[in-house]
Amino acid sequence: MSEQDEAVVDTTTSTEEEHDIVLDDVEETEDIDVLKDNLAKAQDAQRLIHLRAKKAEAQVRDLESQLKTSAPQPISKPPTDDAIQAYILKSQGMSDDLLGELKVIAKARGKSVLDTVNDPIFIAIKSQKEQEEKSKKASLPASKGSGQAQVKKGFQTANLSDEDHKAMWRETQLG
User: Fold this and answer.
1) Cα separation, 164 vs 172, whole angstroms
2) Is the pTM of this model over 0.70?
């Protein structure tokens, strides 16, 4: 190697990410071009890694802030005995109105909802509601026609006259 080859590279730093290479009187330009390409690729890869790290850090900060601002999830409480008993009665077909009345009576008596089902006050209220429902169902509007079905004449109709038979035959042939 000559003295010119030894004084090949003078580096100066412009920023942390970029390095400028100054080449003086170099004969082997192929090796230098390969080195320049490798350096450029390494710098691009470093920039990409740096950008990805910044993006990941920002996402972590966002997630941490969301965790701090969101309220903790309340632990679901098991249903009370009254709620379970109400579900049982509801599944047996009790209406919401009757169930509300039953709860009021149970609270006034200091009993459970299932024990109050046989209470005389509730039985009276229940029978009254059932009678009201029956009367609503019984008072249906009157039908718009007479209750008799109109018989349509056909080829199989009994006591069909010859003229009626011929008229029906013509209607089927023309129409």
Assistant:
1) 13
2) no
